[in-house]
Amino acid sequence: MWVNQQRSNRRWVVLGLVSVVLCAALMVGVFVLYPLIGERTLQQKLAELGKRLDRTIIADIDVGFGSAQLRDLRVSGAGDGKAPLLHIKKLVVKFRGFRAMLGDIELDRVEATGVAVAVRRDVRGDNFSDLVDKVRGKGETATAGSAGASRRLVPRTAEVSAMSVTFEDGPAGVAVELPEIAGKWSGGDLAAQIQRATVASSTGQRLSLGSITVKKAKATRALVEIGKGEVALWPKMMLTGVTGTVLPDPKAGHYRLSLEGGYGGVAGTLWKAVGEIDLEGSTATLDLSADKFNLDRLEPILQGSYLVDYAKTSVDANVHLEVNRERAAFSGKVHVRDLNVGHPMLADREVRHLDFEGAVAGEVVRDQRTATLTQGDFVARGLPFSITGQVEIPGGKEADGSIREAPRYAAHLIIPPIACQAVLASLPTEMVPYMSGYRLGGTFATDLQVRVNFANLQDTVLEGSVGIRNCRVKEQPEVSPKRLTSQFEHYVEVEKDQWLSFIVGPDNPDFVPYEEISPHLVNSIMTTEDSSFMKHRGFIVSEFRSALIKNLEAGYFRYGASSITMQLAKNVLLYREKTLSRKLQELFFTWDLENTLEKERIRDLLQRDRVRAGALRHRPRGQALLGQGGQGSHPGGGGVLLVDLAGAQAAVPAVLQGHADPVDVGQDRADLGPDVEAWPADGDPVSGGAGHAACLPQGRQRERGRVPGQAGPRHPQGAADQPAQAVGGLSANGLLASVTRAP
Fold first, then answer.
1. Percentage of the chain with pLDDT > 70?
2. Model confidence pLDDT, tens digit, residues 79-122
3. Considering the entire predicted model, what is its pTM?
4. Residue 189 pLDDT > 80, yes or no?
5. CA–CA distance, 730 with 733 (Å, rounded to integer)
6. Widest pairwise Cα distance in the chain
7. Are 232 and 205 in contact, with CB atoms under 8 Å apart?
8. Beta pairing partners, 257
9. pLDDT score for 32
10. Beta carbons within 10 angstroms of residue 396's beta carbon
């Protein structure tokens, strides 16, 4: 019996020792071998996954029983640039430990902290599309087994914090930033919050969303709520207070979008947008409408702008958008009523009661980086016109696969046949004050095209027609070019607010008949100013294209294409400031001058004006002009023959009586060049004066001495209180000279 007891004790001891050994082995396996094997296995799995996805995947791995911690996990590829596609500072994975020992891994919980996703796209492609296709099973290496394994590796719960996503699309010029993302997925329920999301384009547009909340219950589709959003269409034009929802649609993969908001931070709802998103097809449609409202509701953002008296100005608009991966198509209508604008480049006075409506349509192609306006039908104050065109910016893909390096632009303007008087009536009086009182007959039409390729500016195309030649004057005001057919009084602003007047005609005692002027001077002026003057009808059509190319090369508008008639219209009938108002009237008066005066009369007046300008320009600053007649007198438009032009030097001594020191014909060539607009505005009596050689009827005095828009004969401010005089004072290098008749 004792022996049996001894044997039983030995068995228990052996069993205990075996148990201890097994436990020790188990402990060694769990706490020593398991982590080593787990780390090696995970590294191997990451390497295999990276090979299958054509990515490099690296991480510092720490495996415990039932958990694994990956630090500084990076998933990168050749197209990533400086930042990897995915970077996770800390990833904790919890799983069933014992089942994992048997080779069956079932994830329980995944926690990710400090996640950064950097998606980018350039002209060579992107760094994510192939990865998405392979994960979805569309890649060549994907198999049914791998897809099934991926589904088994879906955790029961996943949580992410401190996550950020950036997306840079170089060809499209779009940058997306989602700097703060946090979310949790558990058993099919999803809740995520995105803060301070922004989408910005290279052309200045910007979308900012204060918050995006995503909620999804099990077996349902996600619900998205948007709060505190802003859309900057262009500087000082923002859609603000954007709120709305994205709701599941009965159609699979479709969502309904509903948004509303205001403008520029102004409280209240001024527009609404509804649409649909198709996630499967990657398309979206949106209809935005702004019901009629008055601009006084936007007073906080319009104060200090060029819009004035906008309390009664009303606006309504609607826009339809269709977007997919390749392009965005748009169409819409806008109507603005009773708009008042005060801009120094538009006119000298505020332009009032503008009505404008239009219908537009076009598309933007992402890869090509082109924006095309296929429809642009507008009506402004009863004048219909159409504008279409295309903008092609650098970085776009050409038809041959190359990448565009320089921009291209094209535009086409059409004004359909319309009564000339209707065109005149459509122009606000504030913009064409000197044309008030005209009555026109005939029919007007325009068809103009311009195409500019900055890769080769010599290929610039400017062609078409302006049908003003089919118009005729039925009635004209007293101050029209008709008054230049005979003797008239002319005013010149020689210093700021200092005006002098003189008679242009035989009553001026220094008047020189045209036939007595030296033909050398006439030829010099004609050659320099407008050699084809006797052949054209006021406009040198071929020069418009040349001037456009020169301005594009210079980078700003410096060169003009002025004919002698255009210069006469500007210098004698109008003023020098560059405004759209002056240019419109200059073109109109050029046409009227050609139909009113003989060519010889236009040439005569322009040459007298040119000579007078040269004489005034060479007068030393502060030197008084002499009175009417006598030695040293300046006959103004009455026959001064001196002109500072290359080629006229031989004629100058014949003009000056008793002076061996004529004006140096080369010293101020730029001052009297073929385009008077190029004269430097240095404040001298001619180029600095607001009314250079202007023929100013009473009452229409601009900012520097006259107020446009009033009818009747005009005089400079205060000129009515000064005796009219034929002014004199011709200065040549400091010498006062009288004018003699040329042989």
1. 71
2. 888 889 999 999 998 876 555 555 556 678 889 999 999 998 88
3. 0.67
4. yes
5. 10
6. 164
7. yes
8. 246, 275
9. 53
10. 21
Beta-bridge partners for 190 = 185, 216
Lowest-pLDDT choice from 14-18, 431-435, 562-566: 14-18
pLDDT in tens, 487-545: 888 877 777 777 778 888 888 887 777 777 777 877 777 777 777 777 777 787 777 78
Place of tokens 């008087």: 421
Contact 156, 428 (CB under 8 A): no
Q: What is the pLDDT of residue 37?
A: 66
8 Å CB contact between 617 and 684: yes
Does residue 312 have a pLDDT over 60?
yes
- Asked if 373 contacts 389 with a C-beta cutoff of 8 angstroms, the reply is yes
Asked if 91 and 161 touch (Cβ cutoff 8 Å), the reply is no
- The neighbour count for residue 416, using CB atoms within 10 Å, is 12
Evaluate if residue 147 carries a pLDDT over 50.
Answer: no
Residue with the larger pLDDT of the pair 187 and 702: 187
- For the chain, the 3-state helix, strand and coil shares in percent, each to the nearest 5, are 25, 35, 35
Residue 655 pLDDT more than 50?
A: no
Give residues with Cβ within 8 angstroms of 362, minimum separation 6: 329, 330, 331, 371, 372, 373, 374, 375
Q: Running DSSP on this structure, what letter comes out for residue 707? A: B
| CA-to-CA dists, residue 523 to 407, 443, 520, 526, 531, angstroms | 43, 37, 5, 5, 9
* Beta-carbon contacts of residue 572 (< 8 Å; ≥ 6 apart): 484, 490, 605, 609, 693, 694, 695
- Residue length, the chain? 743
pLDDT in tens, 212-257: 999 988 878 788 898 888 888 666 667 888 899 988 888 877 889 9
Single-letter amino acid, residue 241: G
Tokens of 57: 């995947």
Spatial CA neighbour of 569 closest among 700, 688, 479: 479
User: Cα(211)–Cα(463) distance, rounded to whole angstroms?
Assistant: 52
Residue in the block written with tokens 């008296």: 309
d(Cα 97, Cα 185) in Å, to the nearest integer?
Answer: 22
The type of residue at 89 is K
Q: Which two tokens stand for residue 353?
A: 């009661």
> How do strand 408-419 and strand 383-392 relate by DSSP bridges?
antiparallel
**Residues contacting residue 327 through CB under 8 Å, at least 6 positions apart:** 363, 364, 365, 366
Burial-class residue 429 by CB neighbours within 10 Å (0-12, 13-18, 19+).
middle
Considering just the CA atoms, what is the radius of gyration of the chain in Å?
A: 40
Res 689 pLDDT > 70? no
C-alpha to C-alpha distance for 246 and 241, rounded to whole angstroms:
17
Judge contact between 338 and 294, C-beta under 8 A.
no
By the 8 A CB rule, do 603 and 533 touch?
yes
Rounded to an integer, the average pLDDT of 607-631 is 43
Q: Which of helix, strand or coil describes residue 741? A: coil
3-class SS letters over 535-600: CCCCCCHHHHHHHHHHHHHHCCCCCCCCCHHHHHHHHHHCCCCCCHHHHHHHHHHHHHHHHHCCHH
Above 50 in pLDDT, residue 712? no
578 or 449, greater pLDDT: 449
The DSSP code sequence of 141-207 is T--HHHHHHHHHT--SEEEEEEEEEEEEETTTTEEEEEEEEEEEEETTEEEEEEEEEEEEETTS-EE
